[in-house]
Amino acid sequence: MLARLLPSRNRAGFLPALVAFASLVWVCPSLAEPLAAFCGPDRCAGPAPFSPLRVQALRGAASRPGDFDFYVLSLSWSSGFCETPAGERARGQCNAGANLGFVVHGLWPQYEHGYPSDCGPAARFPSRLALDSAQGLYPNEGLARHEWQKHGTCSGKSPTDYFAEVRRARDSIVIPAPFVATKEQQTWTPIDITRAFIAANARLRPGMLGVACASGVLQEVRICFSKDLRDFHACPEVSRQGCRVPEISVPPIL
């Protein structure tokens, strides 16, 4: 309809531009949608930050193990997760006395725009030895199993080596002091949480992390790493999709 309203001399340039714009919105829905996905004991609930099936068109018809640009380490604030509907079903993690602060949600292979997922059937079910190597990283074994199947299979590594990479990434992050063993309710601005992590971690800079929240409550801090985990990585999409509220509540450790 729009093309008919334009003079014929302008149609040749208008239609390709319209197609290009539509393709950008289709391939990069994350440009318009906030990041909001949270995990329970054995699965993630809520819309994903990107649509893998749409994004795969940029890298081929299917996700290939090892074909990605960088990692996102997602650290979940356990008490914030426990205030979500998924948290109400989390046995153990959300019990009084669980004493969990930031826990690993996942280590996600990422494209510069979007991410791969579920990269083939090979070793989809990690061995008991591999799962044992992940103890102390995730709040429960069900989440470790889920994260391997959805994200770890795209790393190009074995389950044991992937969980070792998760531990390496987690061990390299210093949690800011106000979030260690806190037993009091706190109120923070998202930018101050970002600044606290930057101050505690050398070489971490603005644009290399994002803060996720839900209903005004802290959910996650997501930190971007280079593919070899030797350094942090600029990730404007992750940073841009952070909290968009002035202040957020940080529930005390249970």
Comma- or semicolon-separated keywords:
254 residues; alpha+beta; Ribonuclease Rh, Chain A; 2 domains; two-stranded antiparallel sheet; 9 helices
What can you see in these coordinates?
The protein is an alpha+beta fold. The protein has 2 domains: 1-32, no CATH class; 34-250, Ribonuclease Rh, Chain A, CATH 3.90.730.10. It is 30% helix and 17% strand. The protein has 9 helices and 8 strands. The strands form 3 sheets. The protein has a 4-stranded antiparallel sheet. It has a two-stranded antiparallel ribbon with strand order 1-2. Strand 6 and strand 7 (217-226) form a beta hairpin. The chain is globular. It starts with a helix and ends with a strand. The model is unreliable at 1-11 and 14-57 (pLDDT under 50).
Ordered list of secondary-structure elements with their pairings:
Blueprint: H1 2-5, H2 8-27, E1 38-39, E2 44-45, H3 52-55, E3 70-77, H4 78-81, E4 102-110, H5 128-133, H6 141-150, H7 159-171, E5 186-188, H8 190-200, E6 209-214, E7 217-226, H9 236-240, E8 248-250
Antiparallel strand pairs: 1-2, 3-4, 3-7, 5-8, 6-7
Multimeric status of the protein: single chain
CATH topology of the largest domain, by name, is Ribonuclease Rh, Chain A
Q: Roughly what fraction of the amino acids lie in strands?
A: 15-25%
The general outline is globular
Tally of strands: 8
Q: Could you state the CATH homologous superfamily of the largest domain?
A: Ribonuclease T2-like
Query: How confident is the prediction overall: mean pLDDT?
Result: 82
Our count of domains comes out at 2
Low-pLDDT runs of 5+ residues are 1-11, 14-57
CATH class membership of the largest domain? Alpha Beta
Proportion of helical residues: 25-40%
Rg calc:
20 Å
Number of helices: 9
Largest sheet: 4 strands, antiparallel
